[in-house]
Amino acid sequence: MGEDEIASLTKGKVLIQAKKYEDAIKCFNRAIRFNPEYAEAWNEKGNVLLILGKIDEAIECFTKATEVNEEYITAWKGKEAALLMENKYDEALECLEHITEIDPENEEVWATKALVLSKIHRFDEAEKCRRRIEEIKKGIPMKKTKRITKKICLVGDPAVGKTSLIRRYVYDIFDNKYLSTIGAKITKKVVNIKEETHDTEIVLMIWDIEGQKKVSSVHSRYYKGADATIVVCDVTAKETLESIPNWVNAVFKVTGKIPLVFLANKIDLPNREISESEIKKVASEFNAPYFFTSAKVGKNVEDAFITISKLLLKENKI
Against a cut of 0.90, is the pTM above it? Predict the structure, then answer.
């Protein structure tokens, strides 16, 4: 580190004490011009911008500081605080996750993470954070956690309940108003799989693909990179089962053979047109598990997503 950038940083810090914030920013900018990779200068500039209420600019500075130094906890904390000011809870949680990876024994950070998770009604995850605090107090080391990210696609005819299944699983809600999905909608869900030596967090990037009566070539761009597929039919509409092979083959044409789970949805409704032997026959042709589900009451929805997660974990080990 050169003397010029250090001197500029030091002067900027003195100016902060004197509450001469604009002059302090000029000093930090000078330090950054001398050395664009000066993480501390980016962080200090971010702190001043927060004081001035320029939150978006502050976030940019903290982001730059963490890009330069991925283990810069102070910058991660600054970014997390700025994001919370704008109620960007998911992004703030990502910062907190980075901090706990760097410093897993930091009780204060686990407590903050629990509060943020509670704020967005992810109470089970918040409780895990509180249990971790108790473990820290007892001197229990943190169990190692592996994290992998996987893309899964939900496919099937229109109105079979793909969007409602995702909403039930991710948000635990049901909406019986059907609106045809335009293109694709992506939702994230973290699944925890416990193993003997470690836990694995599977980040599911769930793609809700637009349904059409005929499989369209336009779908292929959404299938690209998919690691697994959930194929959905409606038990009250037999034609939705008959179209399943077309959906699967269209996916496989892009991805090759990947794990599948079949869902026969809407079992809460009367007048079923699909029997278990029929869905079992189709599933066996692709050597895949199947579930009868109801997005409305939540029947087997979580089990289906846990099953696809375990199949993904098995694939990841091969």
Answer: no
